[in-house]
Design brief:
The chain has seven helices and five strands, in the order αααββαβαββαα. The protein is α+β, with helices and mostly antiparallel strands. Strands 1-2-3-5-4 form a five-stranded mixed β-sheet.
Length: 157
């Protein structure tokens, strides 16, 4: 099972209360439309959820902890462009993620306005989350080094 499929299963219970939100007829939150993968990293879009349901998603992340299928996840509470005043969803999710990261020793990074990446297991987290070079990078490095060695070998002989 892919990390996205696993997260969709873990978040399936959010769909029912989300369907009862006042805006659900126009913009309904479902795991099919709001959970996907970008660059190997699962993404959960919290747009179209209430603060209470957004925090319920963070609670799932907290419960899974280091067992998250990809070792990291991006959450998108948004910037609050459609909310008068401050973005209550973004602020509540950011606060909950900061507490979770502090209490559990996870890494938390903002990724632009309205996006957060939380890394619960850096050994399993994709390079797109951690910023460390992935296998393709090291394969290219090995090829370049092999080419340099071959060139030096041939030049000396």
């Amino acid at each position: 099972m892919s990390p996205v499929e696993a997260l969709r299963g873990l978040l399936q219970h959010i769909e029912r209360p989300a369907s009862k939100l006042p805006w659900a007829k126009q913009r309904r939150w479902t795991v099919a439309t709001h959970v996907w993968e970008e660059s190997g990293l699962p993404v959960i879009d919290l747009h179209d959820l209430s603060v209470k349901l957004g925090l319920a998603v963070v609670e799932v992340i907290a419960e899974q902890g280091r067992g998250l299928p990809a070792g990291a996840v991006t959450l998108i509470p948004g910037r609050g462009k459609h909310t008068p005043g401050k973005s209550t969803l973004r602020d509540a999710v950011r606060h909950a993620l900061m507490e979770l990261a502090r209490d559990e020793g996870y890494a938390l990074f903002p990724r632009g306005p309205g996006r957060f990446v939380i890394i619960t297991d850096p050994d399993r987290a994709p390079a797109s989350a951690t910023g460390r070079p992935g296998p393709l990078f090291w394969a290219v490095v090995a090829l370049v080094v092999a080419g340099i060695i071959a060139t030096l070998w041939n030049a000396g002989g």
